[in-house]
Amino acid sequence: MEQKLNRNQFKSQARLPKFAIPSYYDLYIKLDLVACTFSGNVNININIIEKTNFIVLNALELNVHEVLFTSSHNQEYRPSDAIMDKDDEILVLVFDEPLAVGEGILRIIFYGKLNEHTKGFYKCSYVEKEVKKNMAVTQFEAVDARRCFPCWDEPALKATFKITLDIPSELTALSNMPILDEKLNGNLKTVYFEESPVMSTYLVAFVVGLFDHIEDTTTNGVKVHVYCPVGKSSEGKHALDVAIKSLGIYTEFFSTPYPLPKLDMVAVSEFHAGAMENFGLIVYRENELLYNEKTSTANRKQIMAISTSHEVAHQWFGNLVTMEWWTHLWLNEGFATWISYMATDIMFPEWKMWTQFLRQTSHGLRLDAQEQSHPIEVEVHRADEIDQVFDAISYNKGSAVIRMLQSYLGEDIFQKSLSLYMKKYAWKNVETEDLWSVLSEESGINITSLMECWTKQKGHPVVYVNCKDNLLEFKQSQFVSSGLQGDGRWTIPITLSLGSYNNQRNFLLESQSQSVDISEMLPSSDGKLCSFKECDETLWIKVNVEQSGFYRVIYDDELSARLRKAVENNCLSAADKLGILDDMLALCQACKQPLSYLLLLLDAHRKEHDSMVLSKLINVCYDVVEIITDAMPDAVNELKDFSSVSSNLLLKD
C-alpha cells in the first residue's frame, strides 16, 4: 500500500523515524579554501526496516544535488521529491514506488559553505610567514554533522566511516583514523583514511591546515601526536605527556585497551568549546593545548592536565560506550570530569586534586540550589534544546554525585563495576539505568533506587545534625538559596568521623529523619562508655567526611563549637575545612544560620597555613561584605576596607 506524504508528520520530533538505519558511510569531500566551499558525496549503507515511501535523515545548510537509492538487487530508485526542512533540520526523500525491506545504498551528492560559526564544517585560520590563511575544522557535537553531510545525526545510530578528502597539497589532513594512502594531483592531494569502527556521527572529525607536530608511543603501541601551529611544537609536550600517561591509567582502570590505533590532538585558533573528544582526533582551542614552560602559569599547567585527561577519558566513557540520547549527556560529562581529577591526582599527587575538586562540588551546589535549576537528566525533545544541558549541572553536579557514589560503594567495587560496564557495552549505546544495573549486580545494592533521586529531581538536601546524649539525630530538607522550603527527598549516603579519621561510620539517611547511636564510637574510661557531652570539648564530629557527599550540613550549637575547636587545633583535613566554610557561607546567605556563626568560624582559622583554605577564607571575607551590604546598605562605607584588612590578618604568621 502506497504511503502518502503528510509534510507535518516528520516535523517537531526529537528523533528520526526508524524507516531506515545506517551501518556504513563512505564519505568524500573536496575542499576549496579560497572560496570557503566544499562539495562531496556520501554513499550510505542502510537497512530498510519496514516498507516505506520515505527516507528521513538529517541535513542543514546543504544543497542536495542528486539522490539515488540502489537496493541489494541493484534496482535503482530516484526520489520524486527531496524536501529540506530547515526548522527541523531534516531531509525527507519521497519515493513514488515503496522501498522494500532489506539492505541498500543511498547515494547523495551535495555541496555547502564553510561557515564562520565554529559549528559543523567551518572556516578557521592559521598564519604562514605573517600571512593569514584559511583552514577547515569540524565540530559536530551535539547535532552539527548534518551541516557537513546528510546523515542520521543521532548518537544511537552508530555506523562505520570511511573518509576521503581532497585538499591543497601543502596542507595536512587529520581524521579519526590513520591515513591509509595519499595521491598527488597537481596542487591537490587526495587523502584516504582507514575505515573506522562503529561510532556516532557527533564524534566524526577532520581538520585541514598547516601544522608542526610531536609524537610518542604508549607501552601498548598506540601512537599519540600533538599538532601545533608552525614553530610551536615544543608547547605541545605537556599535553603529549599527560595524554600518554592518561591512556595508561584508563587502560588499567577500565581493564580495556584504548580502542583505536592512534590518538591525535590538534590545536586550532578558533574553537567554541575548550576541547572536543572526537574519536581518535581531539580538537582543542590553542590556549587549552599549548603550554609554554617559560611564560605559562602553574595554574594553566593544572587546567591543561585536567582538560587533556578529561578528553582522553571520553575515548572510553562517551566514545566506546555512548549515551543512547542526549538525555543521558551527564554520563559523558559527569564521568569524564570525575575521572579526569582521578587521573590528574595519580600523575601529579602534589597538586592535591581531590581537594581542588571541591571547587567543582561547590559550583554545582550553588547552581543546583537555585529555584530554576534542573535535574541531571533532562528530557531533550528537540535539537535546539540540547545545548542547554551542557552546563554545570551535567558537569559539576554530575561529577560530584559520581564521587559520592564511589565513596559510598568503595573504590574497589566501583572500579570493578566500571570495568564490567565497559566490557558489556563496548561499541554500544546506553542509558543511565544500564550503568546502575551493572553497579547493582556488583555491589549487591539497589543503585537505581539509591541514585534516581539524585539524577531525576533537581536540587539537593541540607542535613540537620543534633546531638542528644549519645544519639545523633539527622533530618533532611531541600536546600534552596533563596531560603524558601523545597519539597525534595533524597536517599543520602552519610559519612561521619568522631574525633579521628580512623573512627568513621557510614549509613544511608533514607527518610526525612533518623537517629544514630554513636555510643560504640565514643572513648571509654575504666571500661565504661562515656557520654558524648561528658567527653572533652575537643572531641568533634564531622559529617560528610572529606566533603564526598553532595549536600549541605547544619550542626547544633554544641557540635558547631566543637568543630570550631577542631579547626583551631588543626585536627581537620583541608577538604573538610573548605567544606565547613562553604556550607556555612551558603547557609548564611540563605538565612539558615546567623552571620555571627560564620564570623566565629573565620576567627577559628587564625593559625591556618594551607594555601587552598587561605584562598577560600579571603573569598569568604569578600562574601561577608556583600551579605552585610545587602542587609544594611548604609554600612557600605564602614565596611569597604573589611575584606582587605581581614585578608591581611589571615595571611599573617
TrEMBL record:
- Does Transmembrane count among this protein's keywords? no
Looking at the record's lineage, which domain of life comes first? Eukaryota
Start and end of every Peptidase M1 membrane alanine aminopeptidase domain? 239-454
Q: What are the subcellular locations of this protein?
A: Microsome membrane
Instruction: Give the site residues for Transition state stabilizer.
Output: Y395
GO biological processes: peptide catabolic process; proteolysis
- GO MF terms, alphabetically ordered: metalloaminopeptidase activity; zinc ion binding
The alphabetical list of record keywords is:
Aminopeptidase, Endoplasmic reticulum, Hydrolase, Metal-binding, Metalloprotease, Microsome, Protease, Zinc
Q: Where does Zn(2+) bind?
A: H310, H314, E333
Q: How is the cofactor bound?
A: Binds 1 zinc ion per subunit.
**Protein name, UniProt field:** Alpha-aminoacylpeptide hydrolase
